[in-house]
Specification:
This protein has 93 residues and is mostly helical. It has helices at residues 11-22, 24-44, 55-92. It is flat.
Amino acid sequence: MSTKCFRNFSVEQEKAYREKNYGTIPQEISDMLMERSAVGLAKYGTTMDRVDLKGSEWCQHAIEEMLDGAQYLLRVKRIFEQQESKQKELNFG
């Protein structure tokens, strides 16, 4: 459903509709995207609609962001593995 369909909805009504029809995960992702856009605008003074970067520069930014994400995921994976190892010791130790 496009944003135009929500013209007569309050913010709360729109959020409730989206959560009911699409689930809480897409709604949370949407909220996070809007929040990140606001942070980016405050930090860099521009939006993703900027036109001063070449395609290769956009790719480089994306690669760097994904590498950061891979590091975060590996760290969380190690935390889970440590917790699972401790739990296994408790159950069988």
